[in-house]
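Many introductory courses stop at the sequence. We go one step further.
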Amino acid sequence: MKLPKAMEKQILEMVGEIPRAKSKEGKRRLSLRPLKSEDPIIEFPTRMTWELWIPQWFPSSANKREYKHWSVGRKQKKSDKEMVSVYFSMSGIPQAKGRRSVRIRAYYPSENGWHDRDNLRKSAYDALVSCQAIRDDNQKWCLQGSVKQFMSGPGKPWGTSFIISTVPPERRIHRGS
């Protein structure tokens, strides 16, 4: 089986050897040389993705906290933080060290309990910050993805799913002056 040239080069770079040159006829030679210290090393950051599933639970809605006494809203947010922290610690997902993206999927048993999508966002992101699934919910540390709601159907599991992914660092080219 013959590999495409780009893939062959990438594999050779990863194992520490790169092809020298082409022959006079324009065909590739398989003469290899070990990497030297001045050869550029290209790192391919991997994107890791995890799903945090919390059955039979939804983040508290901002609308339900808005017109109540402040202590009621505080208790609801504390309850959200505790629930996410417990499931996060059991999931084995590593704590955030860099930038992450988060998408939220809410699966409802019926259409009666649906919330406005933006109302679920604030409490959910605060809970993710408190258990260190994300470093902060600002734009520097978290790409806030979509919030989607689905009906799971009768007899099927319902709850909230967080899809958490690492975000590779931005590539910047520094040029000498």
